[in-house]
Amino acid sequence: MKLTVVKTASLQSKNDLMVYFVTQALKKKAPLCADKDVAGMIGRAFTAGDFAGKEGQTFLYYPEKIGKGGVARILVVGLGKDDPSREIVRKAAGSVAACALKTKAEKLLLMVPELTGMSGEEVGECLAEGMILGGYQFLKYKSKQKDDEKPGQINAVSFFALQEQGAVRRGMKRGQAAATAACAARDMANEPGNFWTPSHFAEYGQGLADKYGFRCKILDKSAMKRLRMGGVLGVNQGSVEPPKMVVLEYRTGKKVPTLLLVGKGLTFDSGGISLKPSNAMGDMKYDMCGGAAALAAMAAVGEEQPKGLDVVAIVPSTDNMPGPGAIKPGDVITQYGGKTVEVLNTDAEGRLILADALAYGIEKFKPAAVVDLATLTGAVIVGLGHHRSGLLSNDDKLVEKLLTAGERSGEPLWQLPLAPEYSKQMKSTVADLKNIDKRDGGTITAAAFLQEFVGETPWAHLDIAGTAWNFTEKSYIPKGPSGIGVRLLMELIRNWR
């Protein structure tokens, strides 16, 4: 999807769809619009009781074509009564994308609204995000279709702003970078387990390094054995696919803090010997969404090249299968750094591979802060549903930054507690730790396990099991994987202080 800012806009332009955004009038009047012809149509729709400019309301009409060309369709989108928020603008753009796909409009012209409380840069950013995220489709494995059955596709979107064109353009580019990266994360997650393996994570990471000049290191099985990464190796024992750990480094070349991102890259989770029930096991190809978010965020970092922060991403990747050599309940493994773990449930595998990556990354890169993302526990869905990701941390300042980033990106978080009593639950009688305890507080005890591997480094754990797919229904969120975490991380990186 090509996005541009144009200097002129007219009903005579050759666009498939022209879009106006209007706010609801405070009194019982029709919403205002600067274009008289469009205002007249809005007035008629208002009188008929079909459109008042409420948030999420839309109406589509087909104007008489002017001369040899002219706009084929006009869409009016309501933003509601109150000052629109970033999320309202994002969802409004998602509604535009949905209409364009339905009508098979390929070339769009958006009239950028001037909004109280939002800068032109913010409006441009949120419109771009909503359009790209809302226009997303994964069609790679669809067979050829007849012309009348082919889905719509948005090819070009022009933005027209009466004022702040430069600011709108800057915001558009920011929104485009983050949303395109989120769509890449969706693509990775949508790939079936037989077409997205640890080797594919490694190839994707190397591709980013080649494109953006990152340093890239791929730890293979032999390297993990030398480093005694018993978490990844243990989970991988039942698999025919070799494990990989992808390490990507973006460096500014200046003396600046380092932010470490760690994403769980479990490309398929059968549960291992502690086999999952067959119902919905197919969704376990999504168990790598944390890793997808971390690498996709690095793609956006490569586009934006932030000046005040170095960023390192680590993705430990394997699948979890019940093969003849699979790790068994009751086995003891040694994690990177020497801590031993009694594996009581092989389906609590994500924390084992994350522990190796966290301990390794903190020792090697000595980051100012660490954020890990993982589809880690079903318990977080019980607690928070599919509307917020769980946040657990040992650092209040990092929590504040993440909560703010979550609200700005439309990917909200909810903080859960961490305390010594939860850590005590994870102590084993035969090893240093055990990988699971009672079901009670399962999201918290999982984080308490990870906390054992971060020391005093400021660290936050994002449990995205409830939001990585089946996220809150929104106009710009498709069914299936949401790409969550990418835009949140970019907000964190952009506003790091």
What does this structure look like?
It is a single chain. A hairpin with a 5-residue loop joins strand 12 and strand 13. Helix 3 packs parallel to helix 4. The protein folds into 2 domains: 154 residues, Leucine Aminopeptidase, subunit E, domain 1; 315 residues, Aminopeptidase, CATH 3.40.630.10. It is α/β, with parallel strands linked by helices and 497 residues long. The chain has 14 helices and 18 strands.
> Remind me, CATH topology of the largest domain?
Aminopeptidase
**Mean pLDDT over the full residue set:** 96
Which CATH architecture of the largest domain is right?
Answer: 3-Layer(aba) Sandwich
Q: Rg to the nearest angstrom?
A: 24 Å
Name the CATH superfamily assignment of the largest domain.
Zn peptidases
Q: Structural class of the helix and strand makeup?
A: alpha/beta
Task: Give the topology, please.
Blueprint: E1 2-6, E2 17-22, H1 36-47, E3 58-61, E4 74-78, H2 86-103, E5 107-111, H3 120-134, E6 156-160, H4 165-190, H5 198-212, E7 215-219, H6 221-227, H7 230-236, E8 244-250, E9 258-263, E10 265-269, H8 289-304, E11 310-320, E12 331-334, E13 340-343, H9 350-365, E14 369-374, H10 379-384, E15 389-393, H11 396-409, E16 413-415, H12 420-425, E17 433-434, H13 442-451, E18 459-463, H14 486-494
Parallel strand pairs: 1-6, 2-4, 2-5, 5-6, 9-11, 9-14, 10-11, 13-17, 14-18, 15-16
Antiparallel strand pairs: 3-4, 7-8, 8-11, 12-13, 15-18
